[in-house]
């Protein structure tokens, strides 16, 4: 895997790095260079399947996958979950036709400039430190999933109980106590240049645990498809 890293999330106009992953949805490897010169790509870089928000982001990507494919855009969901654990999860929670890959070492997060935020008691230096006082003041609104808007910690606990997801040793090996890798989605053109992005690192932390709106993503996809 690529070991390079950048000091900020990649922005539109930046060239995406090549990263090689273990495929989850099939055997073998997946490289970002496989798509260059062939098709645009929406890549989602998620914490792992132990994260209830990430499980929902992956499902949302799968729901948009058919519409994106109609525009000639491929989708790739990358999770930090070790490959065998991820394959077991998707065996019982199948997402047909969604290409997925495992990156337990977080090489793609580093290569795309997604930081790891450290939780502190009350010190915030975004996007590297986030005080729990700020976390408790945030509100996540997921109609149909949460009974009321909740702070991210309470929302995560509620969704974990709802999903009955069992944390295993494989999940624990990628979890860092007191820290959380930030996630993002990047739309690359067929030459591998970023044309659109949505990351938790933006908006001073207000994007934490949120996903881009399907309307925003599809509007960006329409522009990339016509380039």
From TrEMBL:
Q: Which residues form the Thioredoxin domain?
A: 10-226
| Protein name (Swiss-Prot/TrEMBL) | Hypothetical conserved protein
- Note the InterPro entries from the entry: AhpC/TSA, Thioredoxin-like_sf, Thioredoxin_domain
Q: In Gene Ontology terms, what is one molecular function of this protein?
A: oxidoreductase activity
Keywords of this entry: Plasmid
Domain of life, per lineage:
Bacteria
């Amino acid at each position: 895997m690529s070991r390079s890293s950048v000091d900020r999330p990649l922005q539109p106009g930046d060239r995406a790095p090549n990263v090689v992953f273990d495929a989850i949805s099939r055997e073998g490897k997946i490289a970002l260079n496989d798509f260059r010169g062939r098709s645009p790509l929406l890549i989602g870089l998620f914490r792992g399947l132990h994260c209830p928000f990430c499980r929902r982001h992956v499902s949302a990507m799968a729901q948009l996958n058919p519409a994106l494919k109609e525009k000639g855009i491929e989708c790739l969901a990358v999770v930090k979950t070790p490959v065998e654990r991820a394959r077991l999860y998707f065996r019982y929670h199948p997402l047909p036709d969604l290409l997925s890959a495992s990156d337990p070492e977080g090489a793609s997060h580093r290569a795309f400039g997604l930081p790891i935020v450290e939780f502190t008691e009350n010190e915030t230096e975004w996007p590297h430190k986030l005080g729990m006082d700020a976390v408790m003041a945030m509100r996540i609104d997921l109609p149909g999933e949460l009974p009321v808007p909740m702070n991210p910690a309470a929302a995560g606990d509620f969704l974990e109980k709802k999903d009955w997801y069992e944390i295993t040793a494989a999940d624990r090996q990628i979890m860092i106590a007191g820290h959380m890798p930030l996630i993002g989605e990047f739309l690359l053109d067929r030459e591998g240049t970023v044309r659109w992005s949505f990351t938790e690192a933006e908006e001073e932390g207000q994007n934490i645990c949120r996903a881009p709106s399907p309307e925003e993503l599809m509007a960006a996809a329409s522009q990339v498809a016509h380039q």
